[in-house]
Amino acid sequence: MLREITAIVKKDLKQAKRDPRFLAPSLIIPFVFLLVYSIMWTSVGGGESFACGLVVQDLSPEADDMAGIIENMVSTTNHTWFSIERYDLETASELYQSTQLIGYILIPEGFGANISSGQKGIVILFINNANDDVVKNYVHRIEAAVLLYNQEAIAPEFDQSNALIALDETLFLPSTPSNLAYMGAVGLLLSLMTCALASQALVTATEFETGAIHDMLNSPTSRLAIVIGRTIAAIPRSFLVLLITTPVITLSLNVFPVGNLLTLFGILILTTLALVPLGELIGMQARKREQSLLAAVLLTVVGFLGGGGLAPIGLTPFSLRVILLVLPTTHSIGLWARVFFSDTLLGLLPSALYLLGTWLVLTAVVTHLMKREVERS
Fold this sequence. Notes:
Blueprint (H helix, E strand, L loop, with lengths): L1 H17 L4 H20 L7 E7 L4 H12 L9 E5 L2 H9 L5 E5 L3 H6 L7 E4 L4 H19 L28 H32 L1 H6 L5 H18 L1 H12 L7 H26 L2 H18 L11 H7 L3 H13 L8 H28 L1
Parallel strand pairs: 1-2, 1-3
Antiparallel strand pairs: 3-4
Helix pairs in contact: 1-9, 2-7, 3-6, 7-9, 7-10, 7-11, 7-12, 7-14, 9-11, 9-15, 11-12, 11-14, 11-15, 12-14, 14-15
């Protein structure tokens, strides 16, 4: 059987070398996602950090106190997503109008005089509300600054070290990845998933169109050897796309793995093993190249989006998460993101066993369908 598997592997690799078009979906889909996500975030606050402008026109002590609270407000998190930069009004307005500045705070002239005379001082916030998450990031912090001033929590008279409550954080990851860093990391996995699923679906559908599948199935080679051999051949074929996507994504987004490289390599192997028989199944059912490619791409995209491709699966509502955990892509993305950003092996076994079990079950299903195909022909 080992000799049969080796022969199948050599045959499939030669076929992939003759027809490298299987790489196309694997390159197009991840970079399209990265392009859209990059445009979406860099146009609404930068994704990595949200810089807010501060314009102080009033020269009163009250204005200085308010500006000090805004600039030096004690953060309740270790994140550096939010920063304050001072501008003059003309510069801040120009940057804001050109969308280079997502928002700015204006402390106008007369702010201190109004407060001294018992009237209400007004702080004006200009904000581009193109993204709800960004707006909340700004508004909540500025509201907190206003609340601190109204409660006379002004430094240095209000000493935070004497506060009754303090917050001590314990973060799971050594550093918090930005949205673009997370997307870049899972984009690498997406390229492999697309190649494993779509390329095998194309190979199988092509063999049905040419009739080569029946020659192979009617040969003395066992059905199980055929399935295992084709799966093994898909591993280097799927890894080939990483030679292109890895340097491009890691260098352009400056995102590099923190976890163990051998563990990440093992996750890629398990992902390929789980998805190749699924691609075989798609090709056997569609039997047409165009239909099999469309089905494989749609399944990859749906599995990627639903399985944590744009945000960790833990942020998904529990009722939906239970359904999404049926997909092998969900487990692959969860394993990949966990190890990519942290040097830990904790909590990996259940998803790893699920991917391994998926491979065994789908291999048995495809082997059975091949047997039925021979009986029909």
